[in-house]
C-alpha cells in the first residue's frame, strides 16, 4: 500500500482585510482586501509555490500561515487542528514546526549576536541545553547549510548576502520544522547566488522531507522548486495546480500575462509600464478583479463570484471562460 503523505497545513476560506483610508475622524473609510477567501493545503515533503505581482497578498498569506497575522475569516488548520484554538504545549509545537525564512537576511539577523548564537537561539529558548551543547548543534547546522564552522564566532556583517541567507536557513532548521514559509528567500541576492540558495532549499527537502510554502517573484525559481503552484491576483487564488499544469497548461488569462511578461511585471517601478493590456487598476465592487486588465473579458465577468472550476483533479481556475 502506498503511504499517503500527512497533511501539515490547511487553510479554509481565509480572508484578511486592512484599513486603507481613514477619514478626518480616524474612521475607516475603505478596506483593502489583502487575502480573499483562500483555501489551500500543504502535505508533508512537498513545495507549494506562490506567484503573483507585488501587493497581491503573498506575504500576508505567509504571515497567516505563521500566525503572525490573524485572518478576519476562515480557519488555519495545523495537522487538522484549528490553530486559533491551540493552547500551551500544542501551540508551541505548531510554532516550532512552522518556521520562516524571509527575503532580507540583513534585517532578519541580529547584528550583535554571533552566528552560532543566532542559529541556536530557538534551541536555547525551547530546550535546556548547555552553552557547549548549543554551540555543537549550531556547528552541525552550519555544516548542513554549507557554511564552514569557522564562521560560528563571526557576526552577520562579516558575511556575504548568500552566507547570511544560509544562516537564516540554519536558524529555521534548528528546531527541525515540518514546514518552512520562505518569503522571497532569494530575491535580495545576486543572480549567481540565487541558484545556490535554491539548490540548498531543494537538498534540504530531499534529506529531511520537509515542506515549503515558497513565495517568489521569480517564475523560473518557483517552477524549479514547486510541486504545486498558486497564482494570486488581488488577494484571490485565480489558478492552482501541479507546476506543469500551471506553467504548461496555463488556464487563467492573468497567469498567461504573468508568464508572458516576465520579468517586467515584477519590478515595482516598471509595473506601470506593462502596456499589453490597459493596466489601469480600477477597483471593482464585484465580479472578477482582473476584469479591467483582461483581454478576453465578457460582460458576465462583472457578476462572476470567483467560484473556481476544476479542470483536472489537481488543476483549478477561477475564470468565467471555463464555466
Ligand atoms: N499591515 C498592513 N497594513 C495595511 N496594509 C497592509 C499591511 N500588510 C500588507 N498590506 C497591504 O496588503 C496588500 C498585500 O500585501 P502583501 O505584502 O501581502 O503583498 P505581496 O504579494 O507580498 O507583495 P510583494 O510582492 O511586494 O511582497 C498590499 O496592498 C499591502 O499594501
Ligand atoms: Mg511580499
Automatic annotation (TrEMBL):
<dbReference type="InterPro" id="IPR027417">
    <property type="entry name" value="P-loop_NTPase"/>
</dbReference>
<dbReference type="InterPro" id="IPR013563">
    <property type="entry name" value="Oligopep_ABC_C"/>
</dbReference>
<dbReference type="Pfam" id="PF08352">
    <property type="entry name" value="oligo_HPY"/>
</dbReference>
<keyword id="KW-0813">Transport</keyword>
<dbReference type="GO" id="GO:0055085">
    <property type="term" value="P:transmembrane transport"/>
</dbReference>
<dbReference type="InterPro" id="IPR017871">
    <property type="entry name" value="ABC_transporter-like_CS"/>
</dbReference>
<feature type="domain" description="ABC transporter">
    <location>
        <begin position="9"/>
        <end position="259"/>
    </location>
</feature>
<protein>
    <submittedName>
        <fullName>Peptide/nickel transport system ATP-binding protein</fullName>
    </submittedName>
</protein>
<dbReference type="GO" id="GO:0016887">
    <property type="term" value="F:ATP hydrolysis activity"/>
</dbReference>
<dbReference type="InterPro" id="IPR003439">
    <property type="entry name" value="ABC_transporter-like_ATP-bd"/>
</dbReference>
<dbReference type="InterPro" id="IPR003593">
    <property type="entry name" value="AAA+_ATPase"/>
</dbReference>
<dbReference type="GO" id="GO:0015833">
    <property type="term" value="P:peptide transport"/>
</dbReference>
<keyword id="KW-0547">Nucleotide-binding</keyword>
<keyword id="KW-0067">ATP-binding</keyword>
<dbReference type="GO" id="GO:0005524">
    <property type="term" value="F:ATP binding"/>
</dbReference>
<dbReference type="InterPro" id="IPR050319">
    <property type="entry name" value="ABC_transp_ATP-bind"/>
</dbReference>
<dbReference type="Pfam" id="PF00005">
    <property type="entry name" value="ABC_tran"/>
</dbReference>
